[in-house]
Amino acid sequence: MAYLHIAETLQCYSCLSFLQSDINTCLNLDDQTEVVTCADGASCVEVGVDVKSADGITYTNQRFCDATNEACNNLKGIYKSDEIRKCRTCSTDKCNNSTLSR
């Protein structure tokens, strides 16, 4: 008797605002927001970030798959603690759909 194992694949929204021409592109979801299939065991991540510049603060979000399941901890080494509004991981399809405002 052969067993067939079908892995559940997680789908997450993916938008890295720092790679966009307009940093506000990833603030909210729309029909242009990319949906990606994550690697086995990954989680979805959404991060609210305050981008500080001479012009003030711009609020944006990052959305992506995280195969390490350590994204929120790892971001503490990239951003200053007051630049991350919120970081959340989740494990259901397209669950990284919040607008993480102040």
Summarize the structure.
With 102 residues, the protein is mainly β. Helix content is 5%, strand content 38%. It has 1 helix and 5 strands; from the N terminus they run ββββαβ.
How would you describe this protein?
This protein has 1 helix and 5 strands; from the N terminus they run E-E-E-E-H-E. It has 102 residues and is mostly beta strands. A 5-stranded antiparallel beta sheet has the order 2-1-4-3-5. It has one helix at residues 71-75, and strands at 11-16, 34-37, 43-53, 56-66, 84-90. The termini are far apart. The model has no long low-confidence stretch (mean pLDDT 84). This is Protein sleepless. It comes from Cryptolaemus montrouzieri.
